[in-house]
């Protein structure tokens, strides 16, 4: 069961403006990454369902987070079907994110008042997702579906839209300023926030610094 309610989850995502996106099959590495992000100011983190037995890693990670990072809201990404969403909700996922829009997932999440952020590649998909209660919609892959200009053009006729950009997002002032000037609510950031050399070296403080700097840049341009 989720530790945080829907309003708490959305508030954390909106207030910080960034959701790190990460997967590692090694539980201990995943723990250290989450903790590094937490110490860097992150309060919502997406663990992606991308490997065999990923749910087992998530189960350990969410127990660790509750104890060591009490204000961290842990969710799960790369969810494409209702059955997998149900599995992770049972393990305590506080939000569900997907690369596509599946209304059956929305039903499962709405029943438990857990936010569902689907991946959308068109204005119509965003509209359909909003109809079934998706408060925050992800444009994905953000760099390929139109970039910041796509967000700006969505917000013109649909100013109520809450948009997360994931894909082609980098922790640089040039990149982040473009997305937030266009009107995104938040960004999802993966590999650029977790350079392989930093992970291999166990340089967790460097990851904390990347998070801290990215959050400061986001705050500057909101």
TrEMBL record:
E.C. designation(s): 4.1.2.14, 4.1.3.16
Keyword Hydrolase in record: no
Pathway of action: Carbohydrate acid metabolism
Enzyme class: lyase
Keywords in alphabetical order: Carbohydrate metabolism, Lyase
GO molecular function: (R,S)-4-hydroxy-2-oxoglutarate aldolase activity; 2-dehydro-3-deoxy-phosphogluconate aldolase activity
Keyword Protease: no
InterPro entries found in the cross-reference section: Aldlse_KDPG_KHG, Aldolase_TIM
Signal peptide feature range: none
PANTHER family (alphabetical): 2-DEHYDRO-3-DEOXY-6-PHOSPHOGALACTONATE ALDOLASE-RELATED (PTHR30246:SF1), 2-KETO-3-DEOXY-6-PHOSPHOGLUCONATE ALDOLASE (PTHR30246)
Family: Belongs to the KHG/KDPG aldolase family.
Quaternary structure, from the entry: Homotrimer.
Protein name: Bifunctional 4-hydroxy-2-oxoglutarate aldolase/2-dehydro-3-deoxy-phosphogluconate aldolase
């Amino acid at each position: 069961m989720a530790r945080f309610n829907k309003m708490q989850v959305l508030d954390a995502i909106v207030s910080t403006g960034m959701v790190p996106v990460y997967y590692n099959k090694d539980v201990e590495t995943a723990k250290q990454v989450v903790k590094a992000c937490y110490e860097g100011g992150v309060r919502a983190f997406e663990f992606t369902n991308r490997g065999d037995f990923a749910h087992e890693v998530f189960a350990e990670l969410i127990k660790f987070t509750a104890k060591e990072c009490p204000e961290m809201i842990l969710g799960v990404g790369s969810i494409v079907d209702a059955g997998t969403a149900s599995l992770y909700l049972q393990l305590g996922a506080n939000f569900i994110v997907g690369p596509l829009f599946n209304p059956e997932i929305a039903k499962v999440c709405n029943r438990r008042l857990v936010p569902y952020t689907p991946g959308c590649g068109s204005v119509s998909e965003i509209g359909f997702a909003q109809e079934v209660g998706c408060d925050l919609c992800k444009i994905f892959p953000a760099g390929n579906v139109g970039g910041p200009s796509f967000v700006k053009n969505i917000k013109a006729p649909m100013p109520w839209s809450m948009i997360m950009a994931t894909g082609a997002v980098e922790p640089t002032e040039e990149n982040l300023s473009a997305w937030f000037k266009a009107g995104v609510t938040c960004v999802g950031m993966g590999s650029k926030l977790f350079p392989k050399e930093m992970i291999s070296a166990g340089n967790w403080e460097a990851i904390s610094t990347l998070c801290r700097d990215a959050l400061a840049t986001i705050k500057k341009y909101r």
